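Components:
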Amino acid sequence: MTNGASKALLWSAGLALVAALGTYPLYANGYYLAIGISILYFTILATAWAMFSGPTRYISLATVAFFGLGAYTAAVLGEAWPWPVVLLAAAALGALVAAITGLSTLRLSGIYFVIFSFGLAEFIRQLVIWYEVNVHKSVGRYLFSAVTQDIIYWQLLGLTILVFAAGWLLGRSRYGLALRAIGADETAASHSGINATRIKLAVFMLSAVFMSVTGAVMAPRWTYIDPSIAFNPMISFQVVIMALLGGAGSLFGPVLGVIPLVLLFEVLTATLPNHFSILLGATFVLIVMALPRGVIGLVDIRRRSAVTATRGAAPVRDGSGPLLAVDGVSKSFGGLCAVDQVSFDVARGQIVGIIGPNGSGKTTLLNMLSGALRPSSGTIRLGDTAINGLRPYQIARLGLARTFQLVRVLGDLTAAENVATAILFSSAPTASEPAAETIRQLLDLVGLSPIHDALAGELTYIDQKRLELARALAPKPRLVLLDEWLAGLNPSELETGIALIEKLRERGTTIIMVEHVMDAIRALCSHCIVMNAGSVIARGTPDEVLSDPKVVTAYLGGADA
Amino acid sequence: MLLFDIVLPGLVLGGMYALIALGLTLQYGVARVMNLSYGESLVAAAFGAVSLYGGLGLSPLVALLLAVPLAAVLNWLLYRLLLERLMRRGKDSGAQEIDSILVTFGVLFVIQGIMLVAFGGQYYSYSYLSIPIVVLGSTLAVNRLIALTFVAVIGVAVYLALTRTRIGTAVRAIAVDANAARLVGIDVSALSGLAFACGGGLVAAGGVLVSMFLTFNASMGVIFTMKALVVVIMGGVGNVLGALFAGLMLGVVETAVARLVDPGLTLAATYALFLGVLLIRPTGLFGRAPS
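Structure:
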């Protein structure tokens, strides 16, 4: 079959499917229409859930909080306001609650977020119950509405199309990539210039809007509504199970879980009502044990998002003076002064080495420069901008990139995507060269171009270090911080590594390197700072400082020791 | 006096919460299993106590001797047969957490389904030592005081076992870092299984004691799971003293809200307190500060 013919076949199959779905209420009777509605609303909920929770891995049990809020909006306002306005109100309420809770809670991770989201749903339910009992004077409400099942179905179908469109657009945008980067390693992502909080919040709100509108659309389906129906926590659990069964990592994964489970629930409730929950539970156990990556994991389509962005940072013009000026910077943890009154300057194009025994405060200093820690006192200026107290993504966008002592790559993204993330979230956008070409050049520079499609988590140690360097260089930073980038390499890798940094020096990159490999310090650095117990004890050329008696004492101990 | 009327019943209620939460501290804090079927195990133990009391006339305190070892064995089997496999499969703690949530969610339905088939949906209760006595001007039931005593004894015993014994130290090492524990020669999967089983035993003890004064039915498990989780997380995961303190605090706050504000808002108060603690100290009241 020719390509054109198969494409035509695919299109006509797709059109037939859309037509069949669109006209479904015309030929399906009440029972099958009800199943159709169930499938659609769980599809929206599960897809919206996976939109946020899939890439970030925040397991949210708050689905029903938003769903219930939407349903109650419709129940309370449905008779008074025109329907589109009611839907908008539900969307706005969902977004508002998501914004308030998200702002305060998205820094919780793992189980804390799971329980928090569950608690949130219960909290809202309790408040609604209290309101209904004390203000409305009745726990339940009757909904008298002319909305038929057919209309509910069509509204849900429209919403389904919207949620898939939104998910598709999000996946293609740089925010989709950022979300995956956050899921892989939030720290590394924010040091690549990603404002993790804002992106998480925006997507959380987007998914909440879909959930609350679904609730509003579904409300007329019940003629009677009370908080235990609208805020049934089972809905949250079902959504999670469905999305994970299908595969939360991809756009069409959740729907693959929704369809079989909705049908299964139907069959079980109809045939074995008494043993329903036993069988349901056993099915869950089986699914989790047998299908760890969801149905879509069986197919194992690892979609590589085509990154064809046209962004890259333009070097920012600096005034005169040093590129980096560190003045009297200190950091204490409780009573321990890890860095004490450190001052130094770094000129453009210079490679400055920071050496010192373990625990002398080198990494703490680097963490303050890159924004991971906030200095207790002192100022840090990058060019003309004071950067002390700025957050990591802001500092990254100002042109300061770093690598980590314990290598941090975004393990679930490919090598190319790791670099792309950093490019897409760097400072000023320029439409000069296509990013794909930049990515290739960068991976070429560090010697990774043959494996740019491999997952970063599967690379060898030295290749992960190379990748981390490429990611740091991607936004064309003015200053690169290398935290023991050469540590743990074998002698031949060390040679390659030193040669690579030499190449960067020839390109005029300014570098601060924390290092224990003295050969590398001698070969690469024009200037050296020696730290001990939080203070600078010597500075000068590598040869000068390494022969300084104070430095020798710091490393080897004094004669009286 | 109003203060005693709030504090004493609050402490008794809180003692019950602490008791319910103790087992979960072990299961979640040490074995790293987020056991969503926790409340169902508790209700199952309560049903066991009801059956023994109603059928054979056995006192709940005797039922404890039967229920605790039985539950420990069943939980050990659950860990060995299902959960251990997931722990080995998950490539990081996040994946393990998600898998354990999902599997125990399934187990929740299985246990609940069995109880529904066996006992139906109606409420159960029985009367055992529900003799009122007056302490400092407020009326309390003897059975609640017995439960409170058990909480204190079990809590101290678990605390001492964890801090003063060789196995307890190994268990705490696993709670901090399972991989590092493995490196110093600790058999992580065997001891995690043991901690999980002990947690199961404590749940059963909680269920039997709670059944003395609480009316319950087959589908109430999730309420206990939530309360236990709230207490465990407020106290700091894996922290026995934290769980005791958080449980007592929750009991007092709930009683105070019920007495002073509106009984309808107690659950809302629980979650508000919980959300507040999480926001201010995400690792719990007694948890270590995040690194």
